[in-house]
From TrEMBL:
<keyword id="KW-0732">Signal</keyword>
<dbReference type="Pfam" id="PF23500">
    <property type="entry name" value="DUF7133"/>
</dbReference>
<dbReference type="InterPro" id="IPR011041">
    <property type="entry name" value="Quinoprot_gluc/sorb_DH_b-prop"/>
</dbReference>
<dbReference type="InterPro" id="IPR055557">
    <property type="entry name" value="DUF7133"/>
</dbReference>
<feature type="signal peptide">
    <location>
        <begin position="1"/>
        <end position="17"/>
    </location>
</feature>
<dbReference type="InterPro" id="IPR011042">
    <property type="entry name" value="6-blade_b-propeller_TolB-like"/>
</dbReference>
<feature type="domain" description="DUF7133">
    <location>
        <begin position="64"/>
        <end position="365"/>
    </location>
</feature>
<protein>
    <submittedName>
        <fullName>Sorbosone dehydrogenase family protein</fullName>
    </submittedName>
</protein>
Amino acid sequence: MKARVFLLASATCLLLAACGSRQDLDKATQYGPDPQLPEPSRGLLPRMRVPKVIGWAQGETPAVPPGFRIEAIATGLSNPRNVYPLANGDLLVIESRKTAKEPIERPKRPVMDWVEARAHGGSGGNQPSNRILLLRDTNGDGKPDAQSVLIDHLDAPFGVVLVGGALYVADTDAILRFNFKAGDSAVAGPPTKVIDLPAGPINHHWTKSLTANADGSKLYVGVGSNSNAMERGVEAETNRAAIWEVDPATGAFSVFAHGLRNPNGLTFYPGSDVLWAVVNERDELGPNLVPDYMTSVKRGAFYGWPYSYWGQHEDLRVRPQQPALVKAAIKPDYGLSSHVAPLGLAFYTGTSFPAQYRGGAFVGEHGSWNRPELNGYKVVFIRFENGRPVGQPLDFITGFVKDGQARGRPVGVAVDRTGALIVADDVGNTVWRVTPASP
């Protein structure tokens, strides 16, 4: 008990060190291509607000705009972090939980462990996780009614992509290939390792997003940084904060783009070869820095981390600086506001939603912990014109937090073959499906 009191007292002192930063910035000023960037504030830890997790009551759902309906198509899951619809109508649900607890190498590590535990509220309990479920509609009513475990004993899986008869799965430490095609009920044989991915006993950003180009000849995997702002040193960040391009036939890889602190939601804009991602930016510069973002990703480009943010705004905490890299840093395409923690991205390719949604982007915002006013905890929609994001985001799915308590937190998003939007909710242990309301 004394140790616990000491920890809480220490945490309070650390929190007070971050006080005094500007709190009144309108979040709307940080949307779009030119977000407002206040002066940074410093502190060992930010001011925190972590909602208590209570889960969804029976019959309770998130809220969607008029003209739509939302329903749970899978409940009682164990940390569903991602979803992947198959062409035959089946749905893969990726259940994932960080497997290794990081060693206490810094005084703030116990505080961060508390934040992570509270933010997930023991989500999933002692149920099995780190597996992929297969959901199938067997009676043709458009809703899955059969559920089975397709792949078990994975290591914090997240990204999944199917290329012909090969199902690629991004574990936290490797890309694996399974023999599987749409319509199968089981994988055929053990997996083949395609390539190792950076992990280790300290594995700060453990989710690995995954996609493939149109012909399946290349895979693209997001590898997040191993720290907030390179405080663990350059060696700990080798080939991290980057998107890799991987040849699945040989396992050879190259860094496609770098300086992206935690890239997720990798996907190509429909009908193009333009790769897009959502990125979690750095912390501990204040409640309104740095805006997380959605961006197209250019081959060979540098996006700033850790030396700068939003182009050439230097992060003076990082030493030594790299002026040449900062000068070359690319500004992202679209700010999402600060600390929303975007983890899912899907372009709307269906036809069942109204025309204004076609070609636009849905973003799953997992939500903040490091600012006094909560931000995120919703799925937003961003309209596109001529392949570019325009205007303000629309709050599309809300209600994950009510009265300061978390019912759930959205993560991965996807569009199925019927045009429905599918959302993984890792705290509510639910998969949600959004369709047009019946006339």
